[in-house]
Each structure stands twice: as structure tokens, then as C-alpha cells.
Design goal:
CATH superfamily: Alpha/Beta hydrolase fold, catalytic domain
CATH class: Alpha Beta
Number of strands: 10
Strand order of the largest sheet: 1-2-4-3-5-6-9-10
CATH architecture: 3-Layer(aba) Sandwich
Largest sheet: 8 strands, mixed
Helix content: 40-55%
Structural class: alpha/beta
């Protein structure tokens, strides 16, 4: 993967295929390689662009704190540096949150966006919410990233048929830098662009797994508030839909993008 210097970090990225730019934004603790089941399919029709976010994969991992605004400015600076103009943007989880923030701060950079298993805010309000965050902090600090991967892998890929995907997930998760992971996780807590959601005019597809962390009703609510958005639910799927249900995910995204060209 080539490297580009933006905002004082060395960012690793990859460009595959030709056509309109399609930028894929990965989630927390992930990297661009986790789009491996999307890149070949999308590259038949688009110029597919991926990069490892700050603190992830092969990109630099400076000390925190990090923020969604920081990830957003990295994304905008990267898009301008490689001179792609507007792009279709697909973001999963944290990547979806970054896409929302780019849509608010730099709407001129986005032709359309697909938000997978993400919402426009992540508020930690209840005791249960706080315990989820504290549990991750505890596991990462005292036991390590591999254990965190094992815990998450069992939730995301619970079936026997998921054994291979789960094993790959755990091995990749174990490679995460724990300090950068925690800084990235904290950046999500109490982030919100909900006050701007009604002003987003960009054509938007929201993909919701029926067994995601956040319930479908929450996504129905904010989709109804947006000016040009639609919701598609993928059944029998959890948070890592692109890896768990790649063929269905790819088809839904391609159907949406076909209407935007």
C-alpha cells in the first residue's frame, strides 16, 4: 500500500479500479483490509479507495486524544491530497460516524453516502451504556487486545459457519495498538451530529443489520428526519455485516449506487 503524509501522519491507502471514486471507511479496531470482500466487487464499476484511519492498520498511531472531528479532517485532507473531487462514501460503524461528520463539515466532498450499522450520535447516558464502555477499557487494559477480539468475535460471528471469519477477526484484532484503540474508542463517546441531521441533503443509504447493537427503530427515526435517505434492513446479521453477509451487502450498496450515477 502507498503512503501519503497528511495532518502530520503517514497514512496508508490503496486505489483499485477505475470510474467514479468510491471511498470505503472502516470501523473501530479495523483497517482497510477488512473491505476485502467489497473491493473486488466494487472495483468492477468504481475507482475504489481505502485507507487506514489514524491509529489503525499501517497508518501512524500518535498519542491521543482522538476525536471524530480529527478523523474527519484526516479524511477530508486525504481526499483533497489525492485530488478525487467528490466521492461516493461507504462507512461502517465508526466509518459511518466519520461519514456523517464529513457530510456536515465538508458536504462538497460527498456525492452519496452509505451508512452501515451506525447512527448520527453515540450518547453514553444509562448505567448499561457506561458499563459497556468500562468493560472494553477493563479487558483491553488488563487482559489485552486478543481477548477483546475473542469477546467481540463471539458476538459478531456466533455461528459454527462463522469459524473461519471469526478466527481471522481475532487475529487481526490482536494486532491493534491498545493505546490507539482506546483513544479511538473514547472519540466515539458522546459524539453527535443529530442537530444537523435534517440539513443533510446528500443522497443517503442506511443499512441496518437486524441484530446490530442499536435497534432498527432508532435508525428509522433519523432516516425519516433526513431529506434524501432510505433504509434497508439485512436480516440475520450483526454489526459486521460486510464481512458476515458480503454478497447481500454488496448487492444493496450497488443497487443504491446505480441510482446515483
Amino acid at each position: 500500500m502507498p503512503t501519503i503524509k497528511i495532518n502530520n501522519i503517514n497514512m496508508h491507502y490503496e486505489i483499485t479500479g477505475e470510474g467514479q471514486p468510491l471511498l470505503l471507511l472502516h470501523g473501530l479496531g479495523s483497517s482497510s483490509r477488512d473491505w476485502e470482500k467489497q473491493i473486488p466487487a466494487f472495483a468492477e464499476y468504481f475507482q475504489v479507495i481505502t485507507f487506514d484511519a489514524r491509529g489503525h492498520g499501517s497508518t501512524d498511531k500518535p498519542r491521543g486524544p482522538y476525536s471524530i472531528s480529527m478523523f474527519t479532517e484526516d479524511t477530508a485532507a486525504f481526499m483533497k491530497a489525492i485530488d478525487i473531487g467528490q466521492a461516493h462514501v461507504v462507512g461502517i460503524s465508526m466509518g459511518g460516524m466519520i461519514a456523517f461528520q464529513v457530510a456536515v463539515d465538508h458536504p462538497e466532498l460527498i456525492r452519496s453516502m452509505t451508512i452501515a450499522n451506525a447512527t448520527p450520535e453515540l450518547l453514553v447516558q444509562t448505567f448499561k451504556d457506561r458499563m459497556v464502555v468500562l468493560q472494553r477499557e477493563f479487558i483491553v487494559r488488563l487482559i489485552g487486545m486478543r481477548k477483546m477480539g475473542e469477546v467481540l468475535g463471539a458476538r459478531l460471528f456466533p455461528k459454527a459457519e462463522h469459524d473461519d471469519i471469526r478466527n481471522v477477526f481475532v487475529e487481526r484484532w490482536a494486532e491493534n495498538d491498545s493505546r490507539a484503540y482506546l483513544a479511538s474508542m473514547r472519540s466515539l463517546v458522546n459524539w453527535s451530529v443529530m442537530e444537523h441531521i435534517e440539513s443533510i441533503e446528500i443522497p443517503t443509504l442506511v443499512i441496518a443489520a437486524d441484530q446490530d447493537y442499536t435497534w432498527i427503530g432508532e435508525k428509522e427515526t433519523f432516516v425519516a428526519m433526513m431529506q434524501n435517505a432510505e433504509l434497508v434492513v439485512i436480516v440475520d446479521s450483526r454489526h459486521a455485516t460486510p464481512a458476515e453477509k458480503p454478497e447481500e451487502f454488496n448487492r444493496v450498496v450497488m443497487d443504491f449506487l446505480a441510482k446515483q450515477r
